[in-house]
């Protein structure tokens, strides 16, 4: 993670890692997915496969904004990912 990331926004427990989504920051939701996967796997983002191989990152960013309400589940790099406007990004 770079120096701008918020390590305190990532929590782990019960076999899951959750990355809250700070809607005041310009970071897209797709970045939160990668950050949560990095935290869960203990690796760096470069070692993970591109998110685009699993889900359209641009579409994900358009679907989840501060003005929407929803939930989406998919698999990324062998992890179960849930993106929720209320709960953030959870990987297990």
What does this structure look like?
This protein is of the alpha+beta class and 92 residues long. It has one domain (7-91). It has 2 helices and 5 strands. The protein has helices at 29-41, 57-63; strands at residues 10-13, 16-19, 71-76, 79-84, 88-91. A 5-stranded antiparallel β-sheet has the order 1-2-5-4-3, covered by helices on one side. A hairpin with a 2-residue loop joins β1 (10-13) and β2. The longest helix is centred in the middle third of the chain and has 13 residues, at 29-41. The two termini are 19 Å apart. Residues 1-8 have low confidence and may be disordered.
In short:
This protein has 92 residues and is α+β, with helices and mostly antiparallel strands.
**Percent helix range:** 10-25%
**How many separate domains make up the residues?**
1
Distance between the termini: 19 Å
Biggest sheet: strands, sense, closure?
5 strands, antiparallel
Strand content: 25-35%
Task: Give the beta-strand count.
Answer: 5
How do the strands and helices of this protein lay out in sequence?
Layout: E1 10-13, E2 16-19, H1 29-41, H2 57-63, E3 71-76, E4 79-84, E5 88-91
